């Protein structure tokens, strides 16, 4: 068997595009948790197994800074366009060879938080299953 080298690296310079606008300076976390659940039925003999994979609803979780005084901030965009469907593109690294895209429905973000802190908001938006797209 071949030894496959590991090329993992921490995220430090992501790209997040919503529609035509780049918001990576506003976003601290983006993820699509798996929407699949494995299950199996076992009968009375060792070979009586029926495996299955169930698909649930897909969501996209996005955490971002609350910058309400900035008309162009992502929190204002999400607040003003709640209920609308937009395309989100995500590159795990600025120089990445891949990008993930999905259609998401924006929801209104949390407003406010603790005093003397940068307040963030996390929204969990209905999403299509992301598509992995090679970047030329």
Automatic annotation (TrEMBL):
Region Disordered: start-end pairs: 33-52
Domain of life: Bacteria
Biased composition (Polar residues): 33-42
Official protein name in the record: Phage tail protein
Organism: Protaetiibacter larvae
């Amino acid at each position: 068997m071949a030894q496959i080298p590991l090329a993992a690296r921490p995220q430090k310079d992501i790209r997040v595009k919503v529609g035509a606008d780049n918001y990576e300076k506003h976003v601290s976390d983006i993820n699509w948790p798996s929407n699949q659940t494995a299950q199996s039925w076992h009968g009375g003999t060792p070979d009586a197994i029926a495996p299955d994979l169930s698909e649930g609803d897909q969501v996209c979780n996005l955490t971002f800074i609350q910058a309400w005084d900035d008309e162009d901030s992502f929190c204002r965009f999400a607040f003003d366009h709640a209920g609308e469907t937009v395309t989100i593109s995500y590159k795990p690294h600025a120089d990445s060879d891949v990008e993930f895209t999905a259609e998401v429905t924006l929801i209104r973000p949390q407003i406010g938080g603790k005093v003397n802190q940068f307040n963030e908001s996390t929204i969990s938006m209905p999403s299509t299953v992301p598509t992995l797209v090679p970047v030329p």
